[in-house]
Amino acid sequence: MTEPVDAETPPLIPVTEPREGTPPVITTRDGLARAAEALATGTGPVAADAERASGYRYGQRTYLVQLRREGVGTLLVDPIAVGELSAIGDALAGTEWVLHAANQDLPGFHDLGMYPAALFDTELAARLLGRSKVGLGAIIAEELGYSLAKEHSAADWSTRPLPEDWLRYAALDVEFLVELRDRLAAALEETGKLEWARQEFEAVRLAPDPSPRVDPWRRTSGMHAVRGGQGIAVVRELWQARDELARKRDRSPGRVLPDRAIVAAALALPRSEQALVALPEFSGKGTRRSSGYWWSAVERALALPASEHPPRRLASTTGTPPPPRSWADKDPAAAARLDAVRAAVRALAEEHDVPQENLLSPAVQRQIAWTPPDVVDEAAVRESLVEQGARPWQVDLTAAPLTEALRTA
């Protein structure tokens, strides 16, 4: 029996095709030049999106760029075939770009020579408005009443030629972005949060691209189970060997050797290549073919003297707080301040219907609790927040409550 439809909530309108059809992919420099000329004649903001293949290829390279502007329609550009896209950036000088989760796509745009002059981030806007679901499909459904299929979000976008249904999906990702932007901007203005959003968008736009992590091998999933120095050395050597091979093959590291295999070797500490491939995690055909390569990495780790084993944890940078779980033992007063700071931020977040992490980043909360100003007054707290990168709206909202929290903790 079909359940009755709520009369107050009209059914979503399914959208399976772009309104002007799926455009052909631009794959030549001449085609790019014509696209740039067209975009320069368009009006209003430009909707932009990008597709990567991070689950399949090495790194975060962009494999497809989608753009849509009033008067132009939707354009699909293949940066692998075309190369850098600075002509697009030049054509859109002074234009606002509308992206969803812009921090994911901007580094790739920068690599291609595209630097937006202004930004509206629909995901960030939805967060500031306290929306419970901030994925693109969910926000479009809630705000505009359209249902978009999302079945190709995890596809291998390095595939060539790209299937027609994938291109249709990609085009739909920018179909409603400008309309969504207008709806969210109106809601931000109505709730008094538009200036907050502008400051957040600008912070995202100007943020430096991510720098390489120190000891990225320490993020190996499941490494917390590895205790001894030899095991940690095995994790490091296998991770580095995998990264080198993945880069050479242009494959996602996890497809070259899963994290669970690295951890299994670190726990078992096999003493021969035969013992290594006897581990279930190394039983795959591809892994066994490269068993000599993996064994060489393990052998290097096992041959290290204890003095050369990597420490279990990185030494904290001067002034950088340790993990909060250790505060109660290391500095009980700081732990009490952190509890008070978090409580103050939580109360403000509930009052203003904003996620706590958007009201004030957890890193800033930890830092001001670990190293509060020498003299705790509102002026000093404001100065500390600014130094740590808090935006003016965040400083104005949190300085007084945090001053009180630090004083009374």
TrEMBL record:
Start and end residues of each stretch annotated as Disordered: 1-23, 306-330
Stretches of the chain forming a coiled coil according to its record = none
Picking any one GO molecular function of the record gives: 3'-5' exonuclease activity
Could you tell me which Pfam families the record lists for this protein?
DNA_pol_A_exo1 (PF01612), DNA_pol_A_exoN (PF18305), HRDC (PF00570)
**Residues annotated as domain HRDC:** 228-308
A Gene Ontology biological process annotation? nucleobase-containing compound metabolic process
Taxonomic superkingdom:
Bacteria
Record-given protein name: Ribonuclease D
What species does this protein belong to? Answer: Georgenia satyanarayanai
